[in-house]
Write a structure and sequence with these properties.
There is one protein chain. This protein is an alpha+beta fold. The protein has a two-stranded antiparallel ribbon with strand order 1-2. Helices cover 40% and strands 31% of the residues. The protein is flat and about 55 Å long. The chain contains one helix and two strands. The N and C termini lie far apart (74 Å). The protein has one domain.
Length: 78
């Protein structure tokens, strides 16, 4: 019984080692790659008294698990 526990524990430690090495490789790769910046700007500048108007609604989406209802929002400057 004790031998089985030691073998099982050794197997778990051996299985966990490659996963931590892979995550370390991903972290190093992420540090080497510069992050891209996305700048979002309006097509035209809104006026000083502009307000942001939004319209929200619920929409049905068909997914493999079944039909779900999700919120959708559309906003614009007015």
């Amino acid at each position: 019984m004790r031998r089985l526990a030691v073998i099982t524990l050794a197997g778990l430690i051996a299985a966990a080692a490659p996963a931590s090495a892979q995550s370390q490789q991903r972290t190093e790769l992420a540090q080497q790659t510069p992050r891209q910046r996305i700048i979002i700007s309006p097509r035209r500048e809104p006026g000083p008294n502009a307000k942001r108007e939004c319209q929200a609604r619920l929409v049905e989406q068909h997914r493999p698990s079944g039909t779900v209802i999700v919120p959708v929002m559309h906003c614009w400057w007015q």
